[in-house]
Amino acid sequence: MEISGVVLGAPDARSLAAFYERLLGWRRDQDEPDWVKLVPPGGGTGLSFQTEPGHVPPVWPHTPGDQRMTAHLDIRVDDLAEGCAHAAACGARLAGFQPQPDVRVHLDPAGHPFCLWTGPA
Q1: Phi/psi at 72 (nearest 5 deg)?
Q2: Are strands 73-76 and 113-117 parallel, antiparallel or unpaired?
Q3: Which of 5, 34, 80, 96 sits CB 3.0–4.6 Å from 51 for a disulfide?
Q4: Which residues form the signal peptide (predicted)?
């Protein structure tokens, strides 16, 4: 068995895919109105986006009764400040709660948290 991809739900699959295209520099492998798949330049596990009517973004950090995050993306960067500036220019927003000094939690346009960090791959 092999994991072939990770899927994020969104109000608009194409819109969220466009954000991650800018953020990661990956290309579209599949592009349908309610489904988009991005693939990394060197191959490997892809990232897909599915339109979910009534999408409710997770709350970070969660509190009782809120929509919980069930997964998040960890994205390694060479320079944390530059990575954060790039993420903001692409449309991400810095989360209000930051649990670690060497990691920055951001929220994508659909509200999914993702972490930027530096360190070995």
Answers
A1: -150, 165
A2: parallel
A3: 34
A4: none
- Alpha carbon distance 98, 100 (integer Å): 6
Q: How many helices (H) and strands (E) does the chain have?
A: 2, 8
Beta-bridge partners for 8: 49
* CATH class for the domain made up of 1-54: alpha beta
In a 13 Å sphere around the CA of 98, the CA atoms on its Cβ side amount to 14
56 vs 4: CA distance, rounded Å? 25
Per-residue pLDDT tens for 59-103?
888 777 766 667 889 999 999 999 999 999 999 999 999 999 999
E strand or H helix at 22: helix 13-24
pTM: 0.89
The CATH class given to the 56-121 domain equals alpha beta
CATH 3.30.720.120 in the chain is located at: 1-54
- Cα–Cα dist 39/52, whole Å: 21
